[in-house]
What we know:
Layout: H1 13-49, H2 58-61, E1 68-85, E2 91-103, E3 106-112, H3 114-119, E4 125-131, E5 134-140, E6 143-146, H4 150-174, H5 176-179, H6 182-204, H7 209-243
Antiparallel strand pairs: 1-2, 1-4, 2-3, 4-5, 5-6
Helix pairs in contact: 1-4, 4-6, 6-7
Amino acid sequence: MGKPHRPHTPRRAWPAMALRALLLAAAVCGLVHCVPWVQESYRNSVTYRHAAPCPPDHRTRTAGNCIEQATARVVDKDIDESCTTDSNGVRSCTETYELRLALAGRETWHEVEWPTYRDAHPGDSAEVRSWHGAVVRMALNGHTETYFAPAEKSLFWRLAGAWGLLGVAVGAAAGPRLLLRPPYMIGWLLLTLPVLALVGDALLGYASPLEWAVDSALAVPGLCVLAVAVRRRRRAADWGASRFS
């Protein structure tokens, strides 16, 4: 009688399996540590969203957890031009409009829309609102500019980090046939902004139904690309199973 056939794993598969296990462990560990990291930014964002205007003696009574209202002065204005050239040699440029404001003894640059830039002149007064020293709203010559608070920016970037780690964890758990394939990476990347917008809207609760609909629609391309990646992985797995059966 011949020896029974025992399937074996090729030696070259072991490094891939070890790398996959290492990536999965690192991603899961990172996600666990991301939880309190995201919670901190979320709590700060909620504090900002519910902050009231500062009383006159806020420096000694509320430790800065309020919206400070003050008058700033326009010191300067500038246009920043960023240009790129594609593979066909076509050059395209994007202009960014900025104003430099003097407030509380220091000067800072702030990006504004074209109408605000056009009507602003050095010496003009601007009514600004700030939180923890960062300008969150500016009213100037009939125009209004709004900015994300530092806590909201922090929440966005921390959620982006958690989403990236989740992508590595899911891909590593599914195997190299999925993790290292361009459709999977492209699909996960396309989902980043829609998912962050939806999660941010759910956490902070200030999005309109229209914004929910737009963010959901933006997620469709990423979902389609991910579906293609999963389908290809299943085909590859079925082909591998039939080959060794």
